[in-house]
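User: Here's a chain of 93 residues. Predict its fold as tokens.
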Amino acid sequence: MSSEAVRVATPDVTKAYPNGAIEPEPLAIDAAEVGKLFGVSERHVWAMNSRGRLPRPIRLGRAVRWRVAELRDWLAAGCPERSRWEAIRHAND
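Assistant: Prediction complete.
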């Protein structure tokens, strides 16, 4: 991955509010938030996940979440299928 792609894919981990307070951006988000991020429905997110079209989610107890940084990197890489995405990630390790 080029340095430009990494720069673009690296999330800003803080959000500033008008009163000056800073709140950290979430590191992992649920299916509803993934849908908002990509402009699709939550149901479509689950369908994409079932078909292997999204990066593999993580489980936090019973909660299923996607890493925001990984979703940004995946998008920058052209949204490859999960198997190809995992091969790309492991090749860069």
